[in-house]
Amino acid sequence: MKTLGEIARLLQGELKGPGDLNIIGLQALAAAGPDEISFAAGARYKKEVEKSKAGALILPKNWPCVLDRPSILVEDPYLSYALTVAAFLERPFMALGLSPEAHVGSNCDIDRNVSIYPQVFIGDRVHIGRHVTLYPGVYVGNDVYIDDETTLYPNVVVYEGCRLGKKVAVHAGTVIGSDGFGYARHGESHVKIPQIGIVVIEDDVEIGANVTIDRAALGETRIGRGTKIDNLVQVGHNVSIGDNSLLVAFVGIAGSTRIGKGVVLGGQVGLAGHIEIGDRAMVGAQSGVARSLAAGEAVTGTPAMPHKLFLRASSALKRLPEMVKQVSDLKLRVDKLEDKSSGEKNGNNA
Fold this sequence. Notes:
Elements: E1 2-3, H1 4-11, E2 14-16, E3 22-23, E4 25-26, E5 36-39, H2 46-51, E6 56-60, E7 71-74, H3 77-89, E8 97-98, E9 103-104, E10 109-110, E11 115-116, E12 121-122, E13 127-128, E14 133-134, E15 139-140, E16 145-146, E17 151-152, E18 157-158, E19 163-164, E20 169-170, E21 175-178, E22 183-186, E23 189-192, E24 198-201, E25 206-207, E26 212-214, E27 220-223, E28 228-229, E29 234-235, E30 240-241, E31 246-247, E32 252-253, E33 258-259, E34 264-265, E35 270-271, E36 276-277, E37 282-283, E38 288-289, E39 298-300, E40 305-306, H4 307-318, H5 320-349
Parallel strand pairs: 4-5, 5-6, 6-7, 8-11, 9-12, 10-13, 11-14, 12-15, 13-16, 14-17, 15-18, 16-19, 17-20, 18-21, 19-24, 20-25, 21-26, 24-27, 25-28, 26-29, 27-30, 28-31, 29-32, 30-33, 31-34, 32-35, 33-36, 34-37, 35-38, 37-39
Antiparallel strand pairs: 1-3, 2-7, 22-23, 39-40
């Protein structure tokens, strides 16, 4: 439970109402009760706000309607919603210790304040920092380094030598450090190129479920600080992703591609190997990118093209059947005119 005043201070918002009003949680407008707070991102939700039974609201500073209940006015309601939910979910870390049903190899350095569940496998020479949580089924290979406050959810696999920073969250079924896809052709067969590098995950990275991040052939595959990766993403060997980037589900990145800071890749985007994506570039969903992109460039489509050009091309594509008919009709008219002209010339020559 928190008071409305505490929430307002957290959000650095303008409080309109009693600061001592008790709030038990945040809920959607249609489901919120009188002891809960809800939010509206803009005036388009005016009717939903009026119907809501929420006891308090988080609203944009430019809210155009009369405030009929306690409210907090903020610059960014959606961000404030995220911060409020996180505040209500925040719980102090409870160290459960190392389960006797977990396997621990030799020469490991494991902090006492951890929660390591049954059926976890930890290899040799592993470092595990304080407030780390490893859920059942986690596999940690030899020489892995896991820093403080990192959480690996069930059945995560971290291959040997990989390094995870502080406050990293890796969701169920993800594999970090499996071999990159590298082969040399030998006649009619393919010879595997040993992948002897590692994966480095920097601080405050969140990785969704069933993601695969390949180890480098040589050197490292690196995920920059603050980057967030959705479910079912493939990151190839020797890829480098800059800080605070966003990768949406089903993104596939081929080997040795370098991605800058603050890049956004929409769902099902595919990036060819050995290209560079500049800082703050944005790639629309289902795009195929085979060339390097400049900083701030926004592209969509396959092959990827400037987003505004893609919109014009998409608009024209919808009219393609009509345009084909128009061209066909014009061709018939031109053919008739040519036949007529030819006939007149032949008649004059006679």
